[in-house]
Design brief:
It contains 23 helices and 33 strands. It is α/β, with parallel strands linked by helices. Strands 14-15-13-16-17-12-18 form a seven-stranded parallel β-sheet, sandwiched between helices. A six-stranded parallel β-sheet has the order 19-29-28-20-27-26, sandwiched between helices. α5 (187-195) runs antiparallel to α6 (202-214), α6 packs across α8 (232-240) and α9 (273-287) runs parallel beside α10 (304-317). The protein is globular.
């Protein structure tokens, strides 16, 4: 009998974690490897689907007839053994299907329908080139994948490094090509050619000398022009005279522009005593291959980034690789630039703002071992790095590290798994660690490293809290207190810069009719529409619904439509009236929706082309501008009273982070927090830069209420376009859970979700709180498998372990 392959198939309506057995046909024997994608027949008829090979078995006695694998999609595995093992663990822990986890790890070019191409990248003999490639430099693999002789020859060429296997996805992940030149003559032949060139033809004489220096090496035309100082026209003459040949070669797309070469890299900075102690501890763990988790708690401006860079350098020096995760890489270009200036060409960048082609190129550089350092957002935790020596999570408290779609993983858990797999240290860095991480440090699970002072020994900026209630009584509706306005004016006169944060975008929160009280809501969601003056529309920030701004009330037809609340667009307009000479850059989702706008706006602000940077929470972290001496928070109360037990923690974190943007260099900084709740404990502790007392107060509240980190939580949610169907499904799940849960496990609900309707679907949820319940995991796996059938009836059920939001 033939060998058998275990294949996880991609059938969305019938997802399963049970691999299907397929026979490996003789033409593919000794060619299929675990981690490859294959095409297999599935179900009745001639339907073919994609799948991943997750195991290869020896022949066994089997009475039935196994279907054979139809074809290969890869010449080499796209999922290595580590990531394959990780995907299985992740599926189990996040209550997701295995196939979903496998796809989550790959760039889009390997997820969508791919056009597979084998490309010549080194010289092959003429006969093979003619037989296989018919005189061209690439071959459509789909046309020859069933020919065992051809596949065998291609595998041999692949092992020799003479061909590469590429994916072209509907023009989204095509290989970028650049023109290159290749000398065609020997040194002596060029000397003979030189004799026939006029003495005053200096450019041609120079070209001959340059070609001789290349020693038959192929080089990109742009690089050749830069090195030789010659123009493209001169190289065209060389081509016509047979001195050189022009070819098209593969070129990587470089996200974020030029990368410095090894001659222009930044030197490490001198460390203070706190930094030295942190680096020494982490370096020791790297050297001894210890899987130790460090919690690096350092105030804003304490030099955590330099600790990251020097410990990464240690890992690289030992021949290992390093991974640095940041919450939202597109919002923190300064971090990426610092890493590139330190490590140059060895750095790869992975995040969702890259085009499919850029992300595919960066993934290939990592997979080929051409990059030893990866900087990226949440999904970069799956970067196919070999021999990992260090993993770092900057701003580890950020909720953006949790995926809010299936599979609902937390990057911290994946990083911890990979660090254990590689016997490498994991560094979690933050000025305001999550309560869960700090509690683990106190329990000795993590090793706490503290950096309580700024690197320049300057104090943290004083924080002033302004009560907006008397301000509104004096000045009417306004976004600016007299105190903040006075400080902004002072900074303008001094030529210093300010940052203003408002955690809301758009012009106004909502519009309401003053005659009948009607509020214009989204037809698909239980949420009011937001006014956007730049596009003259009302928008839903949840489903994307848009409609024109009404001039009369749709309900009573009255004309007294008024705008309530505020947004960045409205604040910018008010600021322009109050301070007409101020140059303002507005930074929110609307102004940064086009690619590269984050970096462009921050570059302009850094070059002092603006006096005030106004934005949403995206400007609260990762920014380091030495001329910023004033930070203003326009509405500290946003999000403070949401129906979520983490609301106070998120408010404290955000205020602490944005406060840290002021006074980071030699000039002293100042922070103003405007609020209608000046006595709230989260705001008061943020004013004092007092994480320790906030931690104690919040932990006491969590203990009394029975919430994390004293309990684990799971949210189970059912949705349907029919509200009754959603409610019926969630009540059935509760009955199933109640029959098997331990006595100390608490089930809250079912209740409608706080935003009960979104995108025309009704949502009902259950929250499960538990400490140790051996039966819960198996019960939830049963729920997941049983609800697969319900999804065909339009009832969707999701299971979210340790949810970051309950909205």
């Amino acid at each position: 009998m033939a060998e058998l392959a275990q294949v996880i198939v991609d059938v969305p309506t019938m997802q399963t974690d049970q691999p299907y057995m397929y026979a490996i046909p003789k033409r593919l024997e000794n060619q299929i490897q675990v981690g490859m994608r294959v095409i297999v027949p599935f179900g009745r008829g001639k339907r073919e689907v994609q799948g991943f090979v997750v195991g290869i078995d020896q022949p066994t006695e089997y009475d039935g007839t196994l279907k054979p694998i139809a074809g290969l999609m890869d010449l080499v595995p796209v999922v290595n053994p580590e990531l394959l093992k990780l995907s299985r663990w992740m599926a189990d822990q996040t209550y997701a299907f295995w196939i979903s986890c496998l796809y989550t790890m790959l760039p889009n070019a390997l997820k969508a329908k791919s056009h597979r191409v084998v490309r010549i990248i080194d010289e092959i003999d003429e006969q093979t080139a003619l037989e296989l490639f018919h005189g061209k430099d690439e071959l459509d693999f789909e046309r020859c994948q069933n020919d065992p002789k051809v596949v065998s020859q291609l595998l041999k060429l692949k092992r020799q490094g003479r061909v590469s296997f590429e994916y072209q996805v509907e023009d989204r992940a095509r290989i970028k090509k650049e023109t290159a030149i290749q000398p065609l003559m020997s040194f002596e032949q060029y000397e003979d050619e030189r004799m026939g060139i006029r003495a005053n033809a200096h450019a041609q004489q120079q070209l001959i000398s340059y070609l001789q220096s290349l020693d038959s090496k192929t080089i990109k035309l742009k690089q050749a022009m830069q090195q030789s100082g010659l123009k493209a026209a001169t190289f065209n003459i060389g081509e016509k005279r047979g001195w050189l040949k022009k070819t098209a070669v593969e070129a990587y797309r470089t996200p974020g522009g030029m990368i410095p070469d090894d001659q222009h890299l930044d030197a490490p900075l001198k460390l203070n005593s706190d930094q030295k102690q942190a680096v020494a501890k982490i370096d020791q763990a790297i050297e001894q291959k210890q899987n130790q988790t460090f919690l690096l708690q350092g105030v804003t401006g304490s030099g955590k980034t330099e600790v990251y860079l020097q410990t990464m350098a240690k890992a690289i020096k030992m021949g290992k690789t390093a991974l640095l995760l940041v919450p939202e890489i597109s919002l923190t270009p300064q971090m990426v630039n610092r890493v590139r200036r330190r490590f140059g060409q060895r750095v790869a960048v992975l995040h969702s703002s890259l085009s499919d082609g850029e992300r595919y190129d960066e993934w290939r550089r990592i997979e080929r071992g051409e990059a030893q350092v990866v900087v990226g957002a949440r999904s970069a935790v799956f970067a196919p790095l070999e021999n990992l020596g260090l993993i770092i999570m900057d701003e580890e408290h950020e909720t953006s590290y949790k995926q809010d779609e299936t599979p609902r993983y937390h990057a911290r858990d994946i990083a911890s798994w990979r660090a254990k797999y590689h016997h490498a240290p994991l560094v979690l860095g933050s000025a305001t660690p999550s309560l869960e991480s700090r509690a683990r440090a106190l329990a000795g699970v993590y090793q706490l490293l503290k950096m309580p002072t700024r690197v320049n020994r300057r104090p943290l900026p004083p924080v002033e809290v302004v009560d907006m209630r008397p301000e509104m009584q004096r000045n009417g509706e306004t976004n600016f207190s007299d105190r903040l306005l006075g400080l902004l004016t002072d900074r303008l006169q001094k030529g210093e810069q300010s940052i203003l944060m408002l955690n809301r975008r758009g012009f106004s929160s909502f519009i309401m009719c003053r005659d009948c009280g009607f509020v214009l809501k989204c037809p698909n969601c239980d949420i009011s529409l937001t006014l956007h003056m730049d596009s003259h529309t009302m928008k839903c920030h949840y489903c994307g619904h848009e409609e024109p701004i009404p001039s009369v009330c749709p309900q009573c037809h009255g004309c007294h439509i008024r705008y309530y609340g505020t947004g960045t667009e409205k604040v910018a307009a008010e600021l322009q009236k109050l301070l007409p000479n101020a140059r303002v850059i507005r930074m929110d989702v609307d102004t940064t929706r086009h690619k590269g706008m984050h970096a462009k706006l921050l570059k302009e602000f850094g070059a002092h082309q603006a006096d005030i940077l106004l934005g949403t929470q995206m400007i609260a972290k990762g920014l380091d501008f030495p001329n910023v001496t004033l930070v203003g928070v326009l509405n500290a109360d946003t999000g403070l009273d949401l129906p979520d037990f983490r609301a106070s923690e998120r408010t404290f974190d955000l205020l602490s982070q944005v406060s840290g943007r002021a006074g980071r260099a030699d000039k002293p900084g100042h922070v103003v927090i405007q609020t209608f709740n000046p006595d709230n404990y989260a705001i008061r502790y943020a004013q004092l830069h007092d994480y320790e007392d906030f931690f104690k107060a919040e932990m006491n509240i969590r203990y009394q209420a029975g919430y994390p980190p004293y309990y684990y939580t799971v949210r189970i949610m059912a949705s349907n376009e029919d509200e009754d169907a959603a409610a019926k499904a969630i009540y059935a799940i509760k009955d199933q859970l109640n029959a098997g849960l331990g006595k100390d496990t608490v089930v809250l609900g079912p209740t409608p979700r706080p935003i009960a309707r979104m995108k025309r679907r009704y949502y009902y949820q259950i929250i499960v709180k538990y400490k140790h319940d051996k039966k819960l995991h198996e019960l939830l796996l049963d729920v997941m498998k049983q609800t697969q059938a319900k999804s065909r009836q339009d009832t969707l059920v999701s299971i979210d372990p340790e949810p970051q939001y309950f909205m």
